[in-house]
Design a protein that fits this description.
The chain is an all-alpha fold. 70% of the residues lie in helices and 0% in strands. It has one domain.
């Protein structure tokens, strides 16, 4: 008989290091990255709809996206959501703020100020989600996530450029930012009861009548029939920028939480800048590189979990006898 001492201290430390980023974190980060990349890259298609009424275009976009997501539910045999009155109220609030009001404020606000100002204001989204996300998740504010979000916001401002605006544009900008945050925050309770696919499809379809009404009220925003090129662009935006991107984003929110998912808003302006460089409408600059690095550093900081407490020396040195 002999006893072999099996030390578990070094192995445990290695296991803690290997599992610092868990599988849900990695898959959530990938989903949010791809989703925001699609949204950022789609900015290049904006000029193709320059002559088409914005609200009318958004109405067609969300209608088609909702129908696509319904078709996916049917193929995957996912039940179509049948929300109860309270859930329907949340869907209406989500669609009314995160989609309908967001687009209306964008149109009205950019008549008061340069669109670059609103893009810069939107860059504060990660910080808003880092602070408000835990209130909807039932968790607590993570100092590391807030710090990472602040770095991401700084990177976005570097990429977008800091701008000024007249005082009259500020209410629109604040509302614009809150509606963007509401798109994620108001979905959190719904994502606890429905899948990302169900929430994405439902919110798109609920937004359609709201946007259609706004399109009729807004001067020059009638639901006109798009041209062939406009229809193709709207179809791309509906399928990729809406159906796929919404599904990826909400899937990431489920895995990461609203606060950490917000970090990936920094991917969107970088993707837009890369596409602009590839398309030849912009040039890569040291400032853009610095902003991109800041965003990446902020995301890494915000996602990193604190190290687990070290084992007590007597526990780490415990030997487990093995009989041979």
């Amino acid at each position: 008989m002999s006893c072999l001492a099996l030390s578990i201290g070094p192995d445990a430390a290695q296991d803690r290091a290997m599992t610092r980023l868990t599988s849900p974190t990695l898959s959530g980060a990938l989903a949010c990255t791809v989703g925001m990349t699609i949204v950022g890259a789609s900015i290049a298609f904006g000029p193709l709809l320059a002559d088409y009424p914005v609200l009318a275009g958004q109405t067609w976009r969300y209608l088609l996206a909702g129908l696509v997501l319904l078709a996916v539910m049917r193929v995957r045999r996912v039940p179509v959501p049948r929300p109860r009155p309270r859930q329907l109220g949340r869907l209406l609030l989500l669609a009314g703020t995160g989609l309908a009001a967001f687009n209306w404020l964008l149109i009205e606000g950019t008549q008061q100020s340069d669109p670059a100002f609103f893009a810069a204001v939107l860059g504060a989204t990660p910080l808003v989600l880092a602070l408000a996300g835990p209130l909807f998740d039932g968790g607590r504010v993570r100092a590391r996530t807030v710090a990472g979000s602040a770095v991401v916001v700084a990177g976005i401002l570097v990429v977008q450029g800091a701008t000024t605006a007249p005082l009259g544009a500020l209410p629109y900008a604040v509302g614009f930012l809150l509606c963007e945050a509401a798109f994620t925050l108001l979905a959190v309770p719904l994502l606890k009861e429905f899948s990302p696919l169900q929430v994405s499809g439902a919110v798109c379809l609920v937004a359609v009548p709201l946007l259609a009404v706004l399109a009729q009220v807004e001067p020059g925003a009638d639901l006109v029939v798009p041209t062939a090129s406009e229809a193709a662009t709207l179809a791309f935006l509906a399928v990729c920028t809406t159906a796929i991107a919404f599904l990826l984003w909400y899937g990431g929110v489920v895995r990461l939480g609203a606060d950490r998912a917000g970090l990936f808003a920094g991917v969107m302006p970088i993707a837009g800048m890369v596409v602009a460089v590839v398309a030849g409408t912009s040039v890569w600059s040291p400032v853009g590189s610095a902003g991109s690095l800041l965003c990446g550093a902020g995301i890494a900081l915000g996602l990193r979990r604190p190290a687990a407490p070290a084992r007590r020396p007597e526990a780490a040195g415990t030997s487990v006898p093995e009989t041979v």
